[in-house]
Amino acid sequence: MTTNTHRPRSILKRGALLAGAATLGIGLAAGLADGALKFDHPAFAQPIQLSGVQTNLPSFADMVEKVKPAVVSVRVKQTIEAADDGQGSLDDLPPGLRRFFEQQMPRGAVPGRPQPRQGMSQGSGFFISQDGYIVTNNHVVDKASEVQIVTDDGKTLEAKVIGTDPRTDLALLKVNEGGSFPFVQLATAKPRIGDWVLAVGNPFGLGGTVTAGIVSAQGRDIGSGPYDDFLQIDAAVNRGNSGGPTFNQKGEVVGVNTAIFSPSGGNVGIAFAVPASTVEQVVTALKKDGTVARGFIGVQIQPVTAEVAEAIGLKEPHGALVAAAERTGPAARAGIKRGDTILSVDGVAIKDARELSRRIASFAPGTKVKLSVWRDGKEREIAFEVGRQPAA
């Protein structure tokens, strides 16, 4: 059995940990000149008085009291497939030795076949409804055979996985026990860069830990998938914080902590959270169907560089250039072909190829939209029916 405190996905595995050095001897040199430690030396002067100085630093205490009961620790038992050890079957052993090894194997095990093992991991999550629905990360509950929730007051509850979405690394759980649970709301407004935020979670299995910071950046693409649109925060996020919430100063969830950039494997002040707007869409779909059905266009796309824009006659580089259209895909059926540049979807301008992917994915399959396409030096409008994204 293996035990593991689950961590946010680390983008960088190697590096060094820097430590501060204390400077002690400089101010004491004169006082130690005669070999004796003199406490009446100026180096041991009275502390600086700050009376009358107002720091105006924010306090999160009231907000923490409000939201912390809704944050939970997630404990997961996982079935881990054992890798083939290359030993092959027992058939080529002498009969006596083969019987010996067969007797040592667990009941029901198949000789020569690697046996799965049980693992344990921990993460974080939070209640989003009074009846016990919980949001966490997909990678926290991946391959889960059992899921337990530990509430802020120490109560342990059994839970089941309602649905997962690997593409955004989100999962929806539901506690088996009925009752009325404290919950928090998802923020409707997007936070600004520089806004204060608060992360609450279960780092290193400690539970109920609060860290503060600011939103450092928005729209981060960390290479985890086509729908990357992460908030970057500098609140401390470590192993076990996966799936935990990041709050604004109103106590609303602005993101779900998912990944870290870390040379050392621990917090270095760069963490990434799935925005609340994405969480809202995914959770609604998971609660209804247990899965997320995304729109699909069926093209290979590439960015429109300044050189490409000049070549095709666009005044400014924007949109998504179609490198190829799947022969039987939705785009090909609508008449979109290689060399077209998609400029907008239903009147909303497309900045780049990644934005086109996210925009089309936000529509339900079967939705009819209008695409603005640049072709042969002219802009034209094409009616398009959104397809269903393949499951793979």
UniProtKB/TrEMBL annotation:
The keyword Repeat is annotated on this UniProt entry: yes
Enzyme type, top EC level: hydrolase
Domain PDZ: 283-352
GO MF entries: hydrolase activity
Catalytically driven reaction(s): Acts on substrates that are at least partially unfolded. The cleavage site P1 residue is normally between a pair of hydrophobic residues, such as Val-|-Val
Keywords assigned by UniProt, alphabetized: Hydrolase, Periplasm, Protease, Repeat, Serine protease, Signal, Stress response
EC number: 3.4.21.107
Subcellular location: Periplasm
Pfam short name (any one): PDZ_2
Predominant localisation class: periplasm
Domain of life assignment: Bacteria
InterPro entries for the chain: PDZ, PDZ_sf, Pept_S1C_Do, Peptidase_S1_PA, Peptidase_S1C
NCBIfam families per the UniProt record, alphabetical: degP_htrA_DO
Protein family according to the UniProt entry: Belongs to the peptidase S1C family.
Protein name: Probable periplasmic serine endoprotease DegP-like
Organism encoding this protein: Bosea massiliensis
